[in-house]
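User: Hey, my collaborator sent me this sequence without any context and asked if I could get a structure. I don't really work with proteins. Can you help?
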Amino acid sequence: MINKRLLIKNLLAHNDENSFYDKKRKIDINQKEGKAKFLKHVCALSNSNPKNNSYIVIGVEDEDNTIIGVDFFDDSKIQNLINAYFNNPPIVQYENIPFPHLPDDKVVGLVTIRPKKGLTSLKKNIWKYYGGSVFFRDGSMSMPKVFKSDIKDVNSKIVEAIENHSQNNIKHTLDGVFDFMKKRQDYNPKYLIFKEYFVLCWAGEKKEVKDQTYYSRVDIELVNEQVRLFFSTLDEVSITYNDNSFTIIEYLQLGLQNSYKYYPLEKTIINFNDNVSYNIESTLLFNPPQFDKKILHHIFNNNNVILEKLKKGKTLNNIELKDLNNLPDTYLICYLNLFHEALDKLNEAKPYLKQYPEIYRKHKQVFRILRKVKYN
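Assistant: No problem. I've predicted the 3D structure and written it out in structure-token form, which is a compact way to encode the shape of the chain:
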């Protein structure tokens, strides 16, 4: 089993960007340009490596390989995005890899691209790239090229050697458990063993609501691979497990005018198999709550007034500051109730909410929810 943290270190140490490996400071697939560039790199790496995995490491400075990290990105539907835009799509996995020196809310993103037999191409237009485009790696660049049938397999042995040097061992596993238990000691950390092989650590702040147990500030890591499976400072989740699986159900607390309810968002089951493998199944459970349209029109217009004041640098009064705290969530509710312009307003608000860290975290959470709903 590959230790993904060690794999990232070996990739960074072994090579600069090349035809099987790319690195990025960050990606943004919420915006059309960022999504298009990400798809271009996936396409190029897949086509340039028909017989081996290729990788994108996210959260690294390009000049000196300094690991700065990015936000936890739990988009379990990323394969749906790949399938939506590619002919002959590769298998793509996005994983969140914690590093000890990073803050709790930062990880390094690792994208693993496993090609299928045949050529990968865009099936439809996106940004400035046309449907039918084919990309390959030219050194460290992803470039559109005319397909040539004689793609040389020059990377398989190199990638195999890097992956072999990144295999897990008992020391890495024990160090990972000890690090987790120490770092998460404020939130009742636990470890579980599945199939006498897999070590899963988890922690969360427990609370009881109407005879239902929820956890917040939840952190879940599969220590064997040094992969963070779940992290959130905002969500409420329920957790159950047995000898073969670990199940997480995420809930959203949504509502208007100080009346809130918990709505199930997504169910994730991590299944551990007898053949020393595991798989993750995610099912979207979310049914958007419906609210009175007159109330929503009032809230939508009120949010727009607050956003315009932010754009002009005007001071908000106490009532407006209170409404600002709920602005991402209420725009989300409006959008889910077919106020389509609310999505544009959420995008407009992004740069102006960065000065309010808690509200900005809510804003990022809203887009995470929208990704899940869109690509389900």
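In plain terms: The two ends are 29 Å apart (CA to CA). You can pass these tokens on to your collaborator as they are.
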